[in-house]
Q: What sequence folds into this?
C-alpha cells in the first residue's frame, strides 16, 4: 500500500492552507530541500563560533584523544579511562574530526547532521502515513520544536540518540500499524533495521531510549484494540539482535577494563528514583511536553481512534505511545525532561497526524481542530523558525561569552610555565574543556602542558613538582563535599602557594603551584 492508499482514509480533498499545500504538491526532492533549508538555518549557521561548554568536553576531548592514540576501543579523558557513557557519539566525533580536525565544528557536526536526518525521517514517515501536507508539516515541526535546538548544535549525545530512537520508533509503528501489508521480505527488513537502530541506541546512550519504545508498543496495542501487535516476532527479533550486539560489546569492555592500569570512571545512576525528587518526577510529563510546544497541543486531536484505517492506527500509536513513553520515564523515576526527549520527539509526528485528521473532519469537529491547530499551520511554523534562528544565535553568543571555558583557559596558560604538569579532579570533572584549551594555547605558543586527571586526589597522588587545580565553590557534584573540604588539612596540598584564581561560568577555582 503506497502513499495514496495511506492518505486516502478521509484525506482526499484539497486543504486550503496556501503555501504549505503548494509546498506539499512539489516533487519529493523539493520538499526534502525545504526541510533541509530550515535545518541549516537552525542547526548549522554559526555552530562553531563558541568554544566547547557544558558537558561537550566529555564527548569531544575523548574523541580527539582517540584519534591521537589510534585506540578506538576505550575512551579516555586526559589519559584516564572514561566509561560513563557508551562510545557512540565519541566515535562519531572522532570520524568527523579525522576530516575536519580538532575543531568545534567537527565536534558539533555529527549532532547537526543527526538532527537534520531526524527531520527528514519525520517528513518521510509523515508523508507515508498521513499524506504530503501532514508530512511536510511534521518534518518542519520537527526542526522547529524547541527541545531539539541545543542538542542539534552541541557536541552531545542527545541528537544522535534521538535519531536512532526515532528510527526504531518509525519501524515499529510502520510494522504494527500496517501489519497486514508486511511480507516475509518486509519482515526481514524490519528486523534488520531494528537491530541496527537498537544497537546504535545502546552504544550511544545505553538503554535510555527503551522506555520510549515500550510506550510505542503500548500505543500500538491501544490502536489495535488488543495484544495482537505483540505477536510481531520480527520486531522483537530485531530488538533482541541489537541488544545482543550491545551485550557482546559490554562483555568485551569488562574484559578490557580488568586489564586497565587504572580504574575507569563510571556512571552514577543518580537520575533514577531517590528520596526528595517525587515532585519533579510528578511534573516530568507536563515539563517534557512544554518543550514540544506549540505542537504538543495537537495531542488531544490525534488521540481519537478514528476509523481504524492504517493511517488512523499509526496516528493513535504515535500519540498514545508518546504519552505512554513519558509515563514509563516517570515510573522509572526520571525527573529531568532532557532524559525523556526520545518520547518528546514523537510529537511532530503527532502534529502531522492531527493535521490529517483535521482535513478529513466536518462541522464542529473541523472548527475545533482549526482552533487547536492554530488556524494556518504555516504561521506557527514560520514564527517558530524565526524564534529558533534568533534563539540559537543568541545562545551561541551567550555560550561564547559566559559559558565556555575557552577564555579562562588563556589566562591559565599565561600563568603556567612551559612543560608544567597539572593535576586536577573536580574542576576537570566539571569543565574539562578549560584544561584542553589551556593545553592547546600552550601548543600554539610552541610549548606544552602535561595534564592528568586524578579522581579523588588521594594522598601522595600529586607530585611535588606539579601544579594542582582545585575547585573552590560550594556546588558539589553528585552530593560530594566541596573539593576544598576534601583537601583541607592535607599538607601536600595546603603548603602549595596560590598562583592563580578564576572562574568558569559559575564554578570557581584556584591554581596551586609546586611545593617550594
A:
Amino acid at each position: 500500500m503506497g502513499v495514496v492508499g495511506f492518505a486516502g482514509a478521509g484525506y482526499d480533498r484539497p486543504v486550503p492552507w496556501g503555501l504549505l499545500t503548494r509546498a506539499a504538491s512539489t516533487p519529493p526532492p523539493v520538499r526534502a530541500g525545504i526541510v533541509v533549508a530550515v535545518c541549516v538555518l537552525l542547526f548549522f549557521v554559526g555552530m562553531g563560533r563558541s568554544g566547547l561548554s557544558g558537558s561537550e568536553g566529555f564527548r569531544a576531548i575523548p574523541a580527539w584523544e582517540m584519534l591521537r592514540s589510534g585506540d578506538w576501543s576505550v575512551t579516555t579523558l586526559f589519559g584516564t579511562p572514561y566509561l560513563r557513557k557508551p562510545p557512540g557519539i565519541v566515535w562519531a566525533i572522532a570520524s568527523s574530526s579525522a576530516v575536519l580536525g580538532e575543531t568545534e565544528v567537527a565536534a558539533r557536526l555529527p549532532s547537526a547532521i543527526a538532527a537534520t536526518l531526524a527531520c527528514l525521517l519525520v517528513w518521510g514517515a509523515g508523508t507515508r502515513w498521513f499524506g504530503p501536507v501532514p508530512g511536510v508539516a511534521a518534518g518542519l515541526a520537527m526542526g522547529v520544536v524547541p527541545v531539539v535546538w541545543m542538542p542539534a548544535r552541541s557536541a552531545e549525545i542527545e541528537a544522535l540518540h534521538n535519531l536512532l530512537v526515532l528510527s526504531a520508533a518509525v519501524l515499529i509503528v510502520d510494522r504494527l500499524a500496517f501489519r497486514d501489508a508486511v511480507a516475509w521480505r518486509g519482515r526481514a527488513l524490519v528486523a534488520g533495521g531494528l537491530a541496527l537502530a537498537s544497537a546504535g541506541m545502546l552504544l550511544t546512550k545505553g538503554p535510555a531510549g527503551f522506555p520510549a519504545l515500550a510506550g510505542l508498543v503500548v500505543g500500538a496495542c491501544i490502536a489495535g484494540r488488543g495484544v495482537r501487535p505483540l505477536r510481531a516476532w520480527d520486531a522483537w527479533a530485531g530488538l533482541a539482535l541489537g541488544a545482543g550486539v550491545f551485550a557482546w560489546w559490554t562483555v568485551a569492555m569488562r574484559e578490557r577494563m580488568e586489564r586497565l592500569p587504572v580504574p575507569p570512571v563510571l556512571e552514577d545512576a543518580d537520575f533514577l528514583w531517590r528520596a526528595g525528587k517525587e515532585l519533579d518526577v510528578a511534573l516530568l510529563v507536563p515539563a517534557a511536553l512544554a518543550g514540544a510546544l506549540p505542537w504538543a497541543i495537537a495531542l488531544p486531536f490525534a488521540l481519537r481512534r478514528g476509523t481504524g484505517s492504517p493511517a488512523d492506527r499509526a496516528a493513535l500509536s504515535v500519540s498514545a505511545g508518546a504519552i505512554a513513553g513519558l509515563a514509563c520515564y516517570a515510573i522509572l523515576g526520571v525527573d529531568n525532561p532532557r532524559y525523556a526527549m526520545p518520547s518528546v520527539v514523537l510529537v511532530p509526528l503527532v502534529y502531522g497526524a492531527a493535521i490529517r485528521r483535521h482535513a478529513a473532519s466536518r462541522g464542529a469537529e473541523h472548527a475545533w481542530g482549526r482552533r487547536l491547530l492554530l488556524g494556518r499551520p504555516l504561521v506557527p511554523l514560520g514564527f517558530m523558525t524565526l524564534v529558533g534562528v534568533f534563539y540559537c544565535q543568541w545562545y551561541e553568543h551567550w555560550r561564547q561569552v559566559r559559558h565556555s571555558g575557552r577564555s579562562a583557559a588563556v589566562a591559565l596558560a599565561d600563568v603556567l610555565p612551559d612543560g608544567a604538569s597539572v593535576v586536577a579532579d573536580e574542576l576537570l570533572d566539571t569543565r574539562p574543556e578549560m584544561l584542553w584549551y589551556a593545553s592547546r594555547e600552550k601548543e600554539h605558543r610552541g610549548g606544552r602542558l602535561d595534564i592528568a586527571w586524578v579522581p579523588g586526589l588521594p594522598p601522595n597522588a600529586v607530585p611535588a613538582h606539579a601544579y594542582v587545580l582545585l575547585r573552590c565553590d560550594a556546588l558539589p557534584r553528585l552530593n560530594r563535599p566541596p573539593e576544598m573540604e576534601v583537601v583541607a588539612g592535607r599538607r601536600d596540598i595546603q603548603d602549595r602557594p596560590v598562583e592563580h584564581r578564576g572562574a568558569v561560568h559559575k564554578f570557581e577555582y584556584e591554581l596551586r603551584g609546586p611545593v617550594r
Remarks:
- Residues 1-16 have pLDDT under 50 and may be disordered.
- The longest strand covers residues 498-504.
- The beta strands are 76-77, 80-83, 265-266, 421-424, 450-453, 467-471, 498-504, 507-512.
